[in-house]
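agent> fetching stored inputs for the adenosine-5'-diphosphate docking request
agent> found them:
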Amino acid sequence: MNRIRLLSEQVANQIAAGEVIERPASVVKELVENSLDAQAARVTVEIQAGGRSLIRVIDDGTGMSRDDALLCLERHATSKIKRAEDLAAVATMGFRGEALPSIASVSRFTLTTRERDAESPEGTQIVISGGKILEVRAAGIAPGTTLEVRQLFFNLPARRKFLRTEETESAHIQHYLTLAALAFPEVAFTFQKDGRLVWQLPALKTSPDLSARLAALRERLRALSGDDRRLLPVDFSAVIAAADQSDESIPSPDPPSSSDSSLRLWGFIGAPGVSRSTREDQHIFVNRRPIENRGLNFALLEGYHTALMKGRYPVCCLFLEIDPAAVDVNIHPAKREVKFHREREVRGFVAQAVRQTLLEFHSGESARSKPGDQRPDVRGQKPEIGRKVLGQSLPSTAQGALPNFPPALKPPPVELSKPSVEQPSLRMGFGITRRSQSAGEPPAAPQPGFTEPERGDAGPPALSHHVAPVRGSSAAEAGRSASFEPVPLLKVPLRLVGVIGRLYVVLESDRGLVLLDQHAAHERILFEQMLNRLEQNHQAPSQRLLLPETVELSARDANFLRGQLPTLTRLGVGLSEFGERTFLLDALPPFVKAADARRFVLELVDELKAVGQEVNSARLGEHTVAKTVCRHAVKANDPLAGRELENLVEDLRHCAMPYTCPHGRPTLIEMNFRELEKKFGRTQ
Ligand code: ADP
Ligand code: MG
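agent> prediction call returned; pasting tokens
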């Protein structure tokens, strides 16, 4: 007996709809993407009852002829790709020709369209219900397309039941529209909810010039969230050299990277100390498509590293521009995820761009290379930063104990905000060609014995193809001149007022009140000093304990710890094997006091394990040990006095990442005069 039947077109469409159209927000996404693909300059979205009863999307894009309007409702009918090869380099949002027939099969659907370039002013209207065409007629309409989707899932009661409350559904819609509006500032967006106007975003002028794009993006961010947080402009680019054909580390059987492909990352990231407890304000776009990608999420965390507290997430709006042939967008039904052919390189690039932006925030031009210095220099960043900051130290005065604090506050030195004309290069270990590694060797994992004269190695560990870093047109310049970038707190003169609670140093700047957490600052300073020493002589100072202690661990932890012993030793933590599962702790860095040896060792094990799972970078193991060790730094209980406080602030100024302790907690809090006035009710 023959049992196999071909499904009717209508059922097939409903099955497709099940994948692509999860909820009203998916309809909005598909329709708006179509409008954007059709080069609309203005997109209006209206919804009712969270999109359950109505979704209407109006655009002024290219529109469709009558034939096309009928054809677009067929499954796999698309104007965007022609051949299978085109799938390898999709440049539009859509390409499967699935959305419209899917939506039409699960709703009451009206398409009204008029071709922009057609001679006849007549448009076409097609009315469909549950996938059946009810009517095709001529209609009067301005050039462009209007799509109306009513009673979504009316013929799929099970689906309809799964919809959440109206508020939840409209929140999803609004979230998608936010992303679209951020990615397309040159398009005017209007959003109406239940007859109420939610947004009316004017089209913003953009040009290929980065400063214009950043300005437009900043404007959109402000318009969408009223966001006034401190953001830093980002702009880096790099070239991934063509893959060596003999290289087996390329997973794709047919590596599409037969030529060099370039990458660019631009946008904004939160200044140190700006973060959220969710990923809600973390927006990443790949070729303007909002995406989720675990690798990029980790790259961000890795880039922030010690500038982010545990459990906090970066705030960012970043655009990765990459050769469409170097990324696969056809791996997720709703195209929310993408896959990079050179995942590791892309990830390393993003981590490094973020890190470099954060470092430059404090160091200003000093972190950049001299003109003509094209070679990425991975060394000596720290001393250079130190010199720069020293050069800026404030004038001595006759005010007794605090020569470095100015008697009267002055505006920050002008040259700090001046744009640099130098071409800085990407540092931090990116772009190193290590051809010595043989092809096909597995990627280098964090290795205990790994020593390399670089800090914050966030770059791809070992590449047999080089990734040449090129700094894009300078975002920092664009940013500064358009005053996106706040003057970093440690760049403005600070005057000491006093200490409260034996912990918080009260300072005054020309902008308002500044509080410094002595312990957090101390931890940051120790942390960076430790890493610097490590960089210079591969060994942090260590002091023998008068009473060595033994620590017994579980077999698993013991096994793990054994592999980490060389790193620990280099960082001054003297731990050695003392039996099957027992270790002897007999030395610690001089400033550390571990009251409970077992807890201290377990904490190290846990932190190192966590890092191993999350990130993939050679230096993070050491950073983690240093971080954990610094948490146990002896806390000076004596209140610090004049000279010591002054040294503390000076030492902090010398740090590469002074605004957070190694665990990401802020070292400094600023309350500017505007905030003070607000608190005192002087202004609104
Ligand atoms: P895809 O976007 O994957 O091509 P869709 O089902 O979303 O598939 O749309 C099918 C086709 O209909 C598109 O390729 C496009 O040619 C046309 N189309 C859809 N929406 C619009 C619109 N708003 N303006 C102009 N053409 C449109
Ligand atoms: Mg589409």
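agent> quick read of the result: Confidence is low (pLDDT under 50) at residues 245-257, 365-483.
agent> awaiting further instructions
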